[in-house]
From TrEMBL, chain A:
UniProt GO cellular component terms: membrane
Pfam families, alphabetized: Cornichon (PF03311)
Transmembrane segments: 7-27, 54-82, 114-133
Family (UniProt): Belongs to the cornichon family.
Protein name listed in UniProt: Cornichon
Keyword Membrane listed: yes
Transmembrane as UniProt keyword: yes
Compartment(s): Membrane
Keywords: Membrane, Transmembrane, Transmembrane helix
Source organism phylogeny: Eukaryota, Viridiplantae, Streptophyta, Embryophyta, Tracheophyta
Membrane topology listed for this record: Multi-pass membrane protein
TrEMBL record, chain B:
Organism: Cinchona calisaya
Ranges of compositional bias, category Polar residues: 1-12, 18-30, 48-60, 105-115, 155-168
Subcellular location(s) per record: Cytoplasm; Endoplasmic reticulum membrane; Golgi apparatus membrane
Sec23/Sec24 trunk domain span: 453-689
Domain Sec23/Sec24 beta-sandwich: 695-779
CDD domains cross-referenced by the UniProt entry: Sec24-like
Gene Ontology annotations of biological process type: protein transport; vesicle-mediated transport
Chain ranges of the Sec23/Sec24 helical domain: 790-893
UniProt family annotation: Belongs to the SEC23/SEC24 family. SEC24 subfamily.
Alphabetized InterPro entries for the sequence: ADF-H/Gelsolin-like_dom_sf (IPR029006), Beta-sandwich_Sec23_24 (IPR012990), Gelsolin-like_dom (IPR007123), Gelsolin-like_dom_sf (IPR036180), Sec23/24_helical_dom (IPR006900), Sec23/24_helical_dom_sf (IPR036175), Sec23/24_trunk_dom (IPR006896), SEC23_SEC24_subfamily (IPR050550)
Region ranges (Disordered): 1-189
Protein name: Protein transport protein Sec24-like At3g07100
Amino acid sequence: MDLEPFLWLIFFLMNMGLIAFNLFQIVSLSDLEADYLNPYESSSRINSVVIPEYLLHGAFCILFLLTGQWFFFVVTLPIAYLNFRKFMKREHLIDVTEVFRVLSAEKKLRVVKLGFYFVLFILVMIRLVFSVINSTVDESEAIHFLGLF
Amino acid sequence: MGTENPNRTNFSPRPMTSPFSAPQNASPFSSAGPVAGPESSAFRPNNPIASSQVPPSFSSGPPAFRSLQPGRSNDPAGPPPPSSYGQPQTGSFQRFSSPQFSPAQVPSPQTSFGEQTVVAPPVRPPAGPFSSPPVSFQLRPQPPIPVGSPPQSINTVQPGMNAASSIGSPFAAPGTNLQPSSPPMRATYSATQGTMQSAFTGYPSQQPNAVLQAPPVNSVAFPPQQGGYTPGPPAASRPYLSQQGSYMQSPPVAAPGGIYSRDRMQHPSSLPPTGPAQGLVEDFSSLHLGSVPGSLDAGIDSKALSRPLDGDLEPKSFAEMYPLNCSSRYLRLSTCGIPNSQSLASKWHLPLGAVVCPLAEAPEGEEVPIVNFVTTGIIRCKRCRTYVNPYVTFTDHGRKWRCNICSLLNDVPGEYYAQLDASGRRIDLDQRPELTKGSVEFIAPTEYMIRPPMPPLYFFLIDVSVCAVRSGMLEVVAQTIKSCLDSLPGFPRTQIGFITYDSTVHFYNMKSSLTQPQMMVVSDLDDIFVPLPDDLLVNLSESRTVVDAFLDSLPSMFQENVNVESAFGPALKAALMVMSQLGGKLLIFQNTLPSLGAGRLRLRGDDARVYGTDKEHTLRVPEDPFYKQMAADFSKFQIAVNVYAFSDKYTDIATLGTLAKYTGGQVYYYPNFVSSVHKDKLRHELARDLTRETAWEAVLRIRCGRGVRFTSYHGNFMLRSTDLMALPAVDCDKAYAMQLCLEETLLTTDTVYFQVALLYTSSSAERRIRVHTVAAPVVIDLGQMYRLADTGAVVSLLSRLAIEKSLCYKLEEARASVQLRIVKALREYRNLYAVQHRLGGRMIYPESLKLLPLYGLALCRSTPLRGGYADAQLDERCAAGYTMMALPAKKLLKLLYPNLIRLDEYLLKSSFADESENIWERLPLAAESLDSRGLYIYDDGFRFVIWFGRMLSPDIARSLLGEDFATDYSKVFLTERDNEMSRRLTRIIKKYRESDPSYYQLCHLVRQGEQPREGFFLLANLVEDQVGGTNGYTDWILQLQRQVQQNA
């Protein structure tokens, strides 16, 4: 039980990482749109973090599974699947030659993802707080909140 | 002219306008200054707008005006007003213009105006109230002040007149009358039409140039005014108002400058010229006239179908409307009427956009003038960076100019300052091509350079594997390059270099101090490196002897080569490393499928399992991301890639072609290359590629007025930012297409301007900017959009979209999308008229798009889109796709609907006096056109097919082909023989080739009944015939018609 706060701290940091990756990509895309970046630079920036992001998300998802956090596992599964599929179809990287044609779609996708991670962030945060509280107070006084997650 | 009666009725509205306008207008005018402003404003705005809405009343009016106008036309130019006064009838017209100059003076014209007065008197009193309610009025600066004063006097005179003309009645009723006018007006309108036309025709004869412009103006002016009157009725007035609103803006902006008026007069005035204006007015009545829609009955007579037998007809009226626009060679809009609202745009189901060919070849005498702003720097708008162009207006005595695109007021630099004359024109106008021509070329100062202008650079990447040697390609290429060395552009700065490759990559040291080139072989394909830091790329004039020696020995060097491998990828990387310093043009001669190192490709095209499945389209897109990445890098380093492919087997053009696609290059494909057959073709096309005028390290951007935005671009280039196309090399054979959309729900301007700017380095080491400017009217009704459509541009855009679609979807879907768009467009058009007319089974289409169905059919049967996978080789399909993505509209149309011309009669004729005419008579592309006693030539711009009828007299065949005339034609070549007939044929063919020098048309001889060659070369390309499972022209039309009616 004492490990739980640590676990949630790890989740918390991973989630932060995912948010950072996504934000970075969105900023790169907006810079491209506003002509602050050229397509070469923008796509190489984005492409350099795509794989780390996918790996991190995969780890995130699997860790939920291993720790028995079913709710979180199920919630993160669709994005993991999406990532996996894109990777298999070799569509995960931005194509510098066609970047302007897919710009708005790619951006939208990342904004949606970002929103998702923010929601997740709040949930993870709550869990983190509770786990910290629970580990510091008596078992009997522990707050049992089983709700949905 | 006989116009008097009709005119008067028409005129009546004017006076009204004047009163109204006067109060409101005052402000704009005042700013402009008394001189010219008012006139111009009055004239120009109206045309487009007025025509559509106001039609009825106006229509009657216009004819009269037109006739009058002759005198008037001069006004814009300058001082005409006085003269105009003198003439009574004209007076009315003039009076608008004249008033501007001096409102007070008006008196004399008044008598003539009398007609108008009828309306005016009533109006006037109310004017105050009226003006305030209708915003639109205020907007219109045109009629404003100047008119105001005269009208009053007029009013008194005219009353009688009104009574006379029944038409006038609606108007006569003062302010109130105006509103109801619409229904009655129509009646009058139609009645008057006849007169109008007559007036029209007469008109031109009277005053050729000036007249043309002027007439439109007058008619135009009227409509707007009326519109203004109408304020009351909401429904009718609505459109108007919006338009007027637009007017307002523009006038204020432009009006201030005296020039503005001038511009208006010249260009805009021409806008809705007679043609359009009439059409608008007539709209429905036009149906009866039969000019607009064509009709088809179910049992169609195929002869009645329209065909482009006169070649590509560009809408002339548009060019006449805006004489300051650049030529349609450079820019064509898919419709010259820009929709004023998104809802209207969404009813235009065809692509809305432009096709730009920035460096199109200009005929003698029409070259683009070069302007050197040495001292002043290039004049551009501070905000939107628009270049100065004929549509900008000068104000404040010439100290400021207003940008026509964003309407920002800019300062005129001191060195560029020139006074304005009385009419607001700059006095130095005739020495300023940038202010009088739609296309100009500026010499760019150093601010436009990131680095010193690069020298023209040609780099050759030549496959020397066994196939290349055996097919003779190597020899032809070496000879051709050598023969072109003297005519490469940019002497003496031209740079040149070579790499050859088979399973290894060979570099050549061409240092000028050597006598023979040194060859260096690199066999480490995984980590390719450049063995020498320089001297691989040398200055041609310094190393000429070495280069000559190299080219002489190249074919023999590899004579014994038996290597079948191709290390294309590594060689490509090496070329990039060598060229990355300077950029330039990379010509790739590829004979086999790349098989070694990075970028090796599979024989995926030979995998029959994929064909016919949902995955088939993946064969048409590049397989290996390596090539896209390379293409992006090439583009980054200003390298354009031209791919020449020769293989008789699958070479994956889809993948190789991406190199050309993203670098502004071109794909040349010679399937089954055999030097004895294709030598001339390769030689001509390579020579043209090397020697044509080329623009280096270019970027192209198209700007447009507020409210409109270009959203997607189609062609061979790479986007460097959202709207900047990077074109490492451009030449006259490349065109680019773009689609636009409306950003705002409602456009408030009456004209939208487009400006294409191409910044490039010329071969002579100058940095230049070529600027093409176009103005297009904003229209409020769909009928007018259709009327102003340009089939060439529409088809060009449609084909590019369809080809792009075929990369992601099945061919059937790509074709279906073409058909669907045509059907939707025709349906929308039909709905426009379905209410007033019993269309029955007739097919309705706008005159301007009468060829659209045919070209749509031809597009569906063109090489990139035709049939199923078996109907065209995959490589051929892809190569044709890449080619069509870059073709200018004219050439595309010719490719889609080739020329079929009968020659035997001409050959037999004893004299060739009329050589020039007869041989251009095109026939419909149907088997019925082929007479078995005839000799025909089929010319699609890429090849000739000469068809010998079965019953063709043996004499002809013998004299053309010698003793081979009876053998298998696939082995016979056309050569000039020693007889008149053969010489004549050679001459004709030469003439055809000269008329279209972009490609070399190889002659294929086909005899009737000789299968499968006849089918392959000719019958499959007769687009009007039913071949296999495809539609013939009549079936296609019937099918379209059925679909159009289904949900109509």
